[in-house]
Fold these 2 entries.
Entry 1:
Amino acid sequence: MLALIRVPTLAILAVVLVIIAVANLQASPARRAPDAASSRQAFLQVYKVFTSPPCQNCHPSGDSPLQGDDSHPHLQNVKRGKDGRGVYGMRCDACHQASNLTGEHLPPGNPRWSLPSPEHQLVFVGRTPAELCRQLKDPKQTGGRSLAQLLEHVSTDGLVSWGWNPGDGRAQPR
């Protein structure tokens, strides 16, 4: 089980640096001025991860997930649904089991396989670094999550961690 939720230290560190940098940008002027260049560089590392297929495939701009390392539209015409887990007769768990199936390009798995809810889609596809940064700082778009809660989410959520163990034949985030 631990192998399934292993997240590379570098990725966690990059996310932590971004959260700290953004928090510094929002800090009062009495505090030490943030290093804007370092903050931008740290966020660009996180941006590469969020816009990699394991992340962006479940954070599309519409109501259909993407799939594969080339992020093509889901072949079965799957839709988000009201809870992010598909629509009647095409629920995510009809194909996506509790864990990855053995073999290349078989449906990946996680007990909570889903897209974000329609109310909080948190779109990664097609966003510039600046747009994604603003989106991540906007609690209206993150399901009410603060930056600290987002850090907790990307560090401990099992579905997010799946991206680091996406199954045979799939690339990890860059």
Entry 2:
Amino acid sequence: MNIEQGNRTQAWAFIGQRLFKRSGRIVGALAYNWIFPLEKILMASSKQRGFSLLELSITLAIGLSIAGIVFVTLQPTLARARMDSGYETAMMVLRDTRHLAVTQNHEYLVVFNPGGFPPGTLLVQYQPPAVGNGPLPPLQLVTTYTIPQDVSFSLKGGFPAAAPDSFGAGGTAIDFGQGLGGGSLNYVAFMPDGSARDTFGNLNSGVVYLSRAAGTLYESHAITVWGATGRIRGWRLVPQGGAPIWVQQ
């Protein structure tokens, strides 16, 4: 303890003694028990210093390293979440459009990857009824949806030939129009009775696949629509006996 600190300590002690004499034991005890320790705290705090530049640099480096590790670790989880988001969006659009057709008693279409729109777009259209025996009016745009950019309606190497609901052979990403003999269609039209048809009134069953170019095989999903009832099912790939198979979600 230096001379200045000693003088200050003696001053606080003198104040405590004076208070003790003038105000009795209670005030004096407070002086000795609270004021004098407070002086020690103040003296100790005056000796504290801030962080050095080296210490701050080390702390920052550790923080950045931890953030980098967390970012890399979370990438597969975030990618899987985007894949699931694309699948859930497609399921929602199909189910909501079918419900709309039934409740509104009109025909509504869902088109996958329509021309003039970015890849990954789902276009919902309304087909107004014909007036009398006249032709059908032009389709009207209802709304559009998009799936995440790194998710697409596409195939991935390793897809099994046994397609979901036995619709096709897993060789076409958007494969509606099953059994119609006119090639694959990229749309499905939901009718007021809930069925799924093409624009000529034929029952329209099919499947659409979703995958990520940078993703794994088992992240992929598929969605099927059964023409007669408009039933919509979701599918995912699982390994079985060392080979992938589609199972209903």
